[in-house]
Amino acid sequence: MSDSRARNSEVSKMARQPRPRLTLDIAAIPTYAIGDIHGRYDLLVKAEEAILRDGARLPGRKLLVTLGDYIDRGPESAQVIAHLMEPPPDGFDRICLAGNHEIAMLDYIDGWASYDDWMQMGSAELLKSYGLDPEHLPLIFPSGAKLDAFIRHSLPRTHIDFMRAMPVMLETPSVIFVHAGINPKLPLGKQTDEDLVLIRQRFLESRVPLPKLVVHGHTPNDEPDIRPRRLNIDTRAYRSGKLTVARLWQGRVHLFST
């Protein structure tokens, strides 16, 4: 799907169903942000094991914040979603933010995007993880309407509902957690869902001072991109095998990767 078509589809849906934005004071809570997972269930398990080891020496309850894009591209989207739907590890709470890939899947489910456009997101791997064959399905269902109906009926309703309920931003007194970034020219209360899950250049290249540290993903890099008021932890896990975690606690940030 072209950027403009994807943007138009998501704008239409988001304008009607704005997503929740959460606020929380994490000053006394060790908080672990996990970058874009993209179907790498194996790396998610390894990252959580590392988090548990790290958190064992820290006091009180801890918080896991996943930054979106759990599905597509990697081989185990279904397993990632099922895992995130389970209770978090003992002693932890978990917040799962929405990414643009979750929203694109819902656009397809709701009829805002075509099958061909959705496949451009790397969603063939998602279908395989749910036991569907994206190469043969169009041969079995030459009618696009029948193909769409079959896929929409086959994907677990509980997984779809879980993705529908995902918030789009977590704001704390000193940190903003979000999938893609924020529009630097707008106050936080005026941010659109579209910008929070899709923005790139206007955020990454802006010289407007950011109001707080923004921890995000969406734009893949070989290594975490560390700036004074911005931290990008999307390290292309589905291809690199490197899923990055940022631990924020007592005004400090500690990074580690699978």
TrEMBL record:
Its EC number is 3.1.3.16. The keyword Transferase does not apply. Pfam families: Metallophos. Keywords: Hydrolase. InterPro entries: Ap4A_hydrolase, Calcineurin-like_PHP, Metallo-depent_PP-like. One of its GO terms (molecular function) is protein serine/threonine phosphatase activity. Residues 30-222 form the Calcineurin-like phosphoesterase domain. This is Serine/threonine protein phosphatase 1.
